């Protein structure tokens, strides 16, 4: 039976499960509802006998996922958030593929580099937003990028919040292939067919082996330890408000 979701689409075709964020009017930015549905969908796909590969993407041609919906964040959505999507992608016993069809910012960028493989349209843009809008991130969410692109580039991406082209991310190693948007579906299917042609048990063992390099300290534990009272301080609210008001944030009082 097809799940009844409001923020995502869940389809299975020829052993490929596709999970698509369906908020194109918001550049597929996520709210708490979106996150809960994605977690449920990934869990469902992980356990399903009908699919051997899981594809993550967004609806439309503008955005894969632009991160958290800043209005939702400004209303306190981040506080006490237990963001498990990236861990679930790593724990998924099946290969995961990011089909990046546009902006992959913040959480969208996380998903792109936590999937086993990443295929991008040539107009895709990658980057982080955290320090720019006062949205905290820590733990494996941050550190795993260094395992993908190296420490200097990971620190550049996280600390400076720049924007990077699909070709640049191919050069850095975050992306496996870049194709024109018109060819994206065919290219993703080609990679999926190759994944479906090999031993699924060997794939599970390989994924378990890659897990060993990750530090799974929960993000909330790190925030509580190193930035106690962060959400009550007003710093996160200043970043979100500045974004919504289209002005430069003033973080000077927290230096």
Which shape, going by the Cα principal axes?
A: globular
Largest sheet composition: 6 strands, mixed
Q: In CATH terms, what is the architecture? A: Alpha-Beta Complex
Main sheet: strand order:
1-2-3-5-7-10
Q: In which range does the helix fraction lie? A: 40-55%
Mean pLDDT: 91
Cα gyration radius (Å): 18 Å
* CATH topology group: 2-enoyl-CoA Hydratase, Chain A, domain 1
Structural class designation: alpha/beta
What is the number of domains?
A: 1
Under CATH at level 1, the class stands as Alpha Beta
Amino- and carboxy-terminal Cα gap: 53 Å
Count of runs of 4 or more consecutive helical residues: 13
Could you tell me the strand content as a percent range? 15-25%
CATH superfamily name? Answer: 2-enoyl-CoA Hydratase, Chain A, domain 1
What's the count of strands?
10
Poorly predicted ranges: none
Q: What oligomerization state is this entry in?
A: single chain
Order of helices and strands: EEHEEHHEEHEEHHHEHEHHHHH
């Amino acid at each position: 039976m097809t799940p009844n979701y409001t923020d995502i689409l869940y389809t299975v075709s020829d052993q490929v499960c596709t999970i698509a964020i369906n908020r194109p009017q918001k550049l597929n930015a996520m709210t708490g509802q979106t996150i809960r549905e994605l977690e449920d969908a990934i869990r469902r796909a992980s356990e399903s006998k009908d699919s051997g590969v899981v594809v993550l993407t967004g609806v439309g041609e503008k955005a894969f996922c632009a991160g958290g919906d800043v209005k939702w964040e400004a209303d306190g959505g981040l506080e006490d958030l237990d963001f498990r999507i990236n861990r679930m992608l790593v724990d998924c016993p099946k290969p995961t593929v990011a089909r990046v069809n546009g902006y992959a910012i913040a959480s969208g960028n996380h998903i792109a580099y936590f999937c086993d493989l990443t295929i991008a349209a040539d107009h895709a843009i990658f980057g982080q937003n955290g320090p720019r809008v006062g949205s905290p991130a820590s733990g494996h969410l941050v550190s795993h990028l260094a395992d993908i692109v190296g420490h200097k580039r990971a620190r550049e991406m996280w600390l400076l919040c720049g924007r990077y082209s699909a070709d640049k991310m191919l050069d850095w190693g975050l992306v496996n292939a870049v194709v024109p948007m018109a060819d994206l579906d065919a290219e993703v299917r080609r990679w999926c067919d190759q994944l479906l042609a090999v031993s699924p048990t060997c794939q599970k063992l390989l994924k378990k082996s890659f897990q060993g390099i990750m530090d799974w300290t929960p993000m909330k534990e790190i925030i509580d330890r190193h930035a106690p009272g962060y959400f009550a301080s007003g710093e996160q609210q200043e970043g979100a408000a500045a974004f919504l008001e289209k002005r430069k944030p003033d973080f000077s009082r927290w230096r």
